[in-house]
Write a structure and sequence with these properties.
single chain, 484 residues, alpha/beta, 13-stranded mixed β-sheet, 27 strands, 22% helix
């Protein structure tokens, strides 16, 4: 366990401001909103009445309402977490949040049908363009519900299901219910219980046996309203030998009041299946982003999380994999950027539950100004298993003397036939480094961009090329003050 803050005396700052260190990336791209007239509004505050309203609007089966009400009881009974948590959670006022807002229940199948204001939002973010160029299917969620959902004919003809969670529950109840809440139980934590009570939107994907989806499926989650909570629920099932890549992007405008995002994502990779889940998060600095993500990998299956966390006031996200079948593989690749007033509390969980399983965690963080990044990791290998392997690497980059990084690895390995290796490093970008590169013809901004991009380059290469372009459109790391 380590707690590292850059405090050494360094040379005076080169300038009062420094250009963006990540070239071509724009964090302000999502900072806009439109005034909306919502047809369905649950009002502020959380109660049984709120939950019943959501279920009624959605015309849900009785078992779903029962599921929601049970989750509400668990949420109210659970205290705010203190383990794997920060004091900033105390600033969330659940009574001021709006838990359901929607302009309509059924997602449109063509962009021409999407209401103009919502369509303008997604056009401004480039979503229709990306669908045309390289995606097999797109779901675009606006506040509580999907405004647009479509899958290419060639993929649907393979038997692939890609709909929002509301449609999944209604149109594929037996398949959905079989796995729903099984990877992440309602009572897993306070915020998984909250999501289970008021969930709306999110994706349901089923890939049949042996089907390999050649192009990525993408969901885009947009928060438009103030004092709002978005609670999407995503369930992805890859049947035996199937393969799929799913990508999600997230943005919200900047408001003076707090916004809450609390999603639950469950992945099920059956025998020999592969699921790759890619996230580019670009929440504004008023968003509490509290997400529970976990996958199960059966025999010879693979679950891979690729995570990029930029923006938000506080992010708490630890994608996990339960390696339940022999020779299962799990991997988490994570990039986190924390600017002034931001805390990126991210990491991974790997639970080995079968022989010959392998897990890999690589986490890189960048702390800017007074930003704070935290890595929390859990690796568990019981003594009853053999030939299990884990590799964990945590690397942090501090931009100046006020930025901070913390590392909290929890590794439990028993038995004599298992192996684990853990490496952690902290480095700083100094004024001398910037000066050295500037002497060779680079501008100050280019020098900082080179240093930061070099630090994360090996992970950025893991993003599909087309999505790396979107990443550069969504994220702008603004540097102010000293580089040392």
């Amino acid at each position: 366990m380590s707690d590292v803050t850059a405090t050494e005396s360094l040379p005076a700052p080169i300038a009062d401001t420094v250009d963006n260190p990540v070239s071509g990336i724009d964090q302000t791209a999502g900072n806009f909103s439109y005034k909306m007239d919502y047809e369905f509004d649950a009002g502020t505050g959380l109660s049984e009445k709120t939950v019943r309203y959501i279920s009624s609007v959605k015309k849900e089966a009785p078992w779903i309402l029962e599921f929601r009400l049970n989750a509400l009881k668990q949420f109210l009974a659970k205290p705010m977490p203190t383990h794997w948590a920060t004091k900033d959670l105390e600033n969330i006022n659940f009574d001021k949040i709006r838990y359901y807002l929607s302009s309509g229940q059924k997602p449109k199948r063509t962009w021409e049908e999407v209401p103009d204001d919502i369509k303008k939002t997604f056009e401004r973010l480039g979503v229709p363009e990306h669908e045309r160029k390289f995606l097999a299917g797109v779901e675009a969620q606006f506040d509580s519900e999907a405004a647009y959902s479509n899958i290419k004919d060639i993929v649907s003809k393979q038997g692939v299901i890609f709909v929002n969670s509301t449609e999944g529950l209604r149109e594929h109840p037996e398949l959905f219910r079989k796995f729903f809440g099984k990877v992440i139980p309602t009572g897993d934590n306070k915020f998984s219980a909250l999501n289970s009570a008021v969930f709306s939107g999110g994706s349901f994907i089923y890939v049949p046996k042996g089907v390999k989806v050649a192009q990525p499926l993408q969901a885009y989650f947009r928060i438009n309203a103030e004092n709002f909570g978005q609670f999407e629920r995503t369930l992805i099932i890859a049947d035996e030998g199937a393969e799929v890549t799913y990508m999600e992007g997230c943005t919200a405008p900047k408001f003076s009041t707090s916004t809450l995002h609390s999603a639950v994502v469950e992945l099920v990779a059956l025998k020999g299946a592969k699921i790759q889940y890619i996230t580019v998060q670009n929440w504004s600095a008023n968003v509490f982003n509290l997400v529970t993500k976990r996958g199960v990998a059966e025999e010879d299956a693979e679950v891979r999380w690729i995570d990029c966390n930029i923006g938000s006031r506080l992010t708490m996200k630890y994608p996990g994999v339960v390696l339940r079948g022999k020779r299962a593989r799990g991997e988490v690749l994570s990039i986190a950027l924390a600017n002034d007033g931001q805390h990126q509390d991210t990491g991974a969980k790997m639970i080995h539950a079968a022989d010959d399983t392998t897990s890999n965690i690589i986490a890189k963080s960048i702390s800017v100004g007074e930003g704070r990044s935290t890595y929390r990791g859990l690796v568990h290998i019981p003594k009853t298993l053999a030939n299990c392997r884990n590799n964990t690497e945590c690397d942090a980059l501090l931009i100046n003397e006020h930025s901070r990084t913390d590392t909290y690895p929890a590794i439990s390995v028993r038995g004599r036939k298992n192996s684990v290796q853990h490496e952690a490093s902290v480095s700083k970008v100094s004024a001398e480094q910037i000066f050295y590169m500037m002497q060779r013809g680079l501008s100050e901004g280019e020098a900082m961009s080179l240093a930061v991009n070099g630090f994360v380059n090996d992970l950025v290469k893991e993003f599909p090329m087309e999505y790396s372009v979107e990443l550069k459109r969504l994220i702008e790391l603004q540097m102010e003050g000293s580089v040392g």
